[in-house]
Backbone:
């Protein structure tokens, strides 16, 4: 599947597409930063950092609005086809996933602020590992987008199972804390929520990866095993 | 490449190794293509790519150009259209053509459409009148002209004249309709009428259309063939060509990365 490497004859169109790419990558970088900041706020019990991350999300929201507007403009003016069409329609979906990740980080930061009002429940071992994996998935998905590399994107899709497994493990452990002592419930449920948000971020990173495959190959790999007429893929 | 359409569908026109020369210059490399019945096939490509040459080869219109040489095989329902003893006029009755600039005769609207019938030897007045009406209805022009069939055709608007030419082609009941940029001289509303008409015609006729308007090709056709410098580069379902073409040259052309 050829990805167009030559420039458009119309330079203005070429610039619009370049601007779109740049803005997408900038939004991706912002989102990566927010994930990192929110988790650091948890581990370091850093409330000011958590509050800064909540503020930072406003900029992510603004980017979603700006990018949507740019996409609409290009669609109206240029009537894109083929790879350009796939790029622009995927960009519209991509910003939705990135914006949701930003919101989930705000949720994480809010739970962190709640937790910081109490003594720590337990040393954090799995949560940071899970967060590390999720961040790396998103980074890989965005790198795959930059490189136009569907194989790298595919690899990200495969990693989602690991994230789901982390969540199950963390949940089970927190459950035992809750059953042990009712005074643990407040903190344990906050931590469980954080794990859930991370798991959702992993899903969004997977979406980004699936979109990269479509953009490059024109092949829609979403919902494998869950479409009508397909036998369910129970290994997921 | 041999461009084959879906298996099991009936091919109206089968082209094998078609080559066209103007003097010493080769305008069309050996091209092979199957054109499915009652489908619309669009031919796209930059100026000079050979798409109009290919189109005109389908009903032997190229022979009207003195220096033109055509080689290869074109079959309509299995019947060869080139070959000794085959009358090109008969070919052109079965395979009609509409051109970019509408060219109505300086006659009445009625006579324009009836002309081909009279030349074909049909004398019965009611039969002629019936077929003229049928053709004008098929060309979506009847309602607009039924009360002024005796008026001079040159008084019609551009869009109406083009539909008159389509009616004229349809009056002799062809099987295939070739259209060479039929809407490029028309305003957007007239263009929309023509596109709608093409959609209706495809249920009865096999249509082959040359267009330089990419979006038009995407809108009206079922199949698209991309030509470049005399070569057939890619032939596929229109939906695929415009969302995920397989050839880099096709991708470059339709996205505007050429030149």
Residues:
């Amino acid at each position: 599947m050829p990805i167009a490497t030559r420039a458009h004859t119309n330079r203005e169109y070429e610039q619009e597409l370049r601007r779109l790419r740049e803005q997408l990558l900038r939004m991706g970088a912002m989102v990566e930063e927010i994930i990192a900041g929110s988790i650091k706020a948890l581990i370091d019990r850093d409330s000011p950092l958590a509050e800064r991350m909540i503020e930072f999300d406003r900029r992510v929201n603004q980017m979603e609005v700006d990018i949507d507007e740019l996409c609409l403009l290009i669609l109206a003016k240029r009537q894109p086809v083929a790879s350009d069409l796939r790029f622009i329609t995927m960009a519209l979906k991509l910003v939705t996933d990135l914006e949701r990740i930003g919101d989930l980080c705000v949720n994480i930061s809010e739970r962190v602020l709640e937790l910081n009002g109490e003594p720590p429940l337990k040393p954090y071992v799995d949560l940071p590992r899970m967060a590390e994996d999720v961040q790396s998935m998103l980074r890989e998905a965005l790198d795959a987008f930059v490189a136009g590399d569907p194989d790298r994107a595919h690899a990200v899709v495969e990693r989602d199972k690991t994230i789901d497994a982390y969540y199950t493990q963390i949940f089970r452990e927190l459950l035992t804390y809750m059953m042990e002592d009712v005074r643990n419930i407040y903190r344990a449920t906050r931590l469980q929520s954080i794990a859930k948000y991370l798991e959702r971020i992993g899903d969004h990173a997977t979406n980004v990866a699936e979109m990269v495959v479509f953009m490059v190959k024109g092949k829609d790999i979403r919902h494998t095993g869950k479409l009508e007429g397909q036998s369910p893929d129970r290994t997921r | 490449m041999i461009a084959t359409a879906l298996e099991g569908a009936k091919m109206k026109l089968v082209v094998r190794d078609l080559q066209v020369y103007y003097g010493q210059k080769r305008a069309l490399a050996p091209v092979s293509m199957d054109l499915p019945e009652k489908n619309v096939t669009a031919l796209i490509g930059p100026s000079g790519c050979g798409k109009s040459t290919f189109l005109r080869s389908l009903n032997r219109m190229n022979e009207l150009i003195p220096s033109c040489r055509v080689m290869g095989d074109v079959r309509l329902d299995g019947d060869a259209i080139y070959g000794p003893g085959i009358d090109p006029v008969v070919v052109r009755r079965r395979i009609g053509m509409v051109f970019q600039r509408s060219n109505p005769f300086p006659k009445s609207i009625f006579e324009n459409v009836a002309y081909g019938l009279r030349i074909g030897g049909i004398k019965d007045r009611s039969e002629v009148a019936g077929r003229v009406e049928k053709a004008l209805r098929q060309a979506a022009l009847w309602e607009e002209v039924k009360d002024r069939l005796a008026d001079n055709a040159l008084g019609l608007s551009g869009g109406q004249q083009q539909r008159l030419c389509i009616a004229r082609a349809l009056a002799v009941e062809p099987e295939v309709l070739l259209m060479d940029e039929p809407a490029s001289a028309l305003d957007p509303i007239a263009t929309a009428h023509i596109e709608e008409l093409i959609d209706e015609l495809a249920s009865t006729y096999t249509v082959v259309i040359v267009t330089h308007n990419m979006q038009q090709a995407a809108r009206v056709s079922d199949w698209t063939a991309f030509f470049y410098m005399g070569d057939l580069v890619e032939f596929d379902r229109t939906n695929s060509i415009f969302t995920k073409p397989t050839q880099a040259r096709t991708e470059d052309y339709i996205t505007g990365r050429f030149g």
